[in-house]
Amino acid sequence: PSPPPQKKSYTTSIRKPTSFSLQPRKMELAQCLFLLSTALFFLCQQTVCLNAELRTLIDIKAALDPHGVYLSSWTLDGNPCSGSFLGVACNELGQVANISLQGKGLDGFIPSAIGGLKSLSGLYLHFN
Question: pTM for the full model?
């Protein structure tokens, strides 16, 4: 006679798959997206501000030097904060802060559009 069949026992161990957490990666991505969108927002705001200030400077030029004799460097395709606009200085935020045009032969009235230069702290037009 053959020996009685033995009961075999099997144990199954279930292991959780090793996974590295995606949470830090998602946080890094979210931070990068936030910083990028913030930078784009401020860049766009600065561009809008620069365009408004440029338009204001062109209005001032039209009022004080309509023939462009003295302020020929003030052009619509220029950048007032690049140093190319005669007598214009900007602050660290890229906003027009100072206009120094003394003794340039300008004549006329200062247009109300000058109020658009929100950061203007100095306007020097003497000896004109």
Answer: 0.62
